Amino acid sequence: MSFWSDRRVVVTGGTGFLGRRLVQRLRTLPCGEVYGLGRDDYDLRNASGIVRLYSETRPDLVIHLAAVVGGIGANRERPAEFFYENLMMGAQLIHHGWRMHVPKIVIAGTVCAYPKLVPVPFSEDDLWNGYPEETNAAYGLAKKALLVQSQAYRQQYGFNSIFLLPSNLYGPGDNFDPRTSHVIPALIRKCVDAVEDGQETVEVWGDGTATRDFLYVDDAVSGIVLASEQYDSSEPVNIGSGDEVSIARVVDLVAAQTGFGGRIVWDTSKPNGQPRRRLDITRAHTSFGFRAQVPFEEGLRQTVLWYMQTRAAVKARSR
Fold first, then answer.
1. In the list 55, 83, 185, 237, which could disulfide-bond 138, CB 3.0-4.6 Å?
2. Number of structural domains the chain divides into
3. Helix, strand, coil fractions of the chain, as percent rounded to 5
4. The domain containing residue 191 runs over which residues?
């Protein structure tokens, strides 16, 4: 707890899915100030916005979560935007953080930085052994460039920045917009819509064989907090569950938990994305004691419950 005492903490992306939960957790600690920043607070794509951010908040710790993100469809439609904005935000935060003597920056990377075909579980040592999966390569490579920058600034300047590789996040408060959502919230919304509208089928991209390492949002928060406190190395660190769940299994669970009893139609003309994902979390455990605590089925149950309750409340207010 002494690490957090009177510390001024900036969380970029602090109004987003992961950021909101992280800010809530940080405010239970003895921090001096916690700034949960949203898109409208500072334009992180421009150096002037970042300099103003640092001048006005004078942070002891920056946790960089702000990102342009989305599922396979959004990545395929907007690869230039995903590359440019993610690279510009992170590169300038690190550069001006060094220039303005910020004591520590924590960079959230992405599991999409890993090569398409890499031994499972993914070890941090295999990060450079191939090109990322094509559907999200622009996003993955933009984030991967920040690891190079983080290591270069530590080597040349002794600047303290660390780089985390979270796996696929899910949980209450996720983005359920079908245009930009990831697989779990997209499936939940599709199934709930189908139940309410009396639809007999739900269409899902791919063939269901792809697997993912799904990490509950509160476990991700715990990993970030522990790494912020205890980790000070240039080597990247995986933050995941260490488990592997197929998309077909996710679909079965979501259908059961939402009450959808119809037929799943697999659109095999659409991509699966990376064939398999499971992270080796040995480094996180040995370096700062992180292990995920929420079993996947329980986390999914909480996510479905949150969405259905929130949806019902919105409809009640509209009436």
1. 83
2. 1
3. 50, 15, 35
4. 2-318
> CATH number of the domain that 256 lies in?
3.40.50.720
At 29, list the tokens. 């600690």
145: tokens are: 């460039």
Mutual angle of helices 183-197 and 247-258, in 10-degree steps: 40
Whether the Cβ atoms of residue 306 and residue 172 lie closer than 8 Å to each other = yes
216, burial (CB in 10 Å: exposed 0-12, middle 13-18, buried 19+): buried
Residues with a known catalytic role: 139
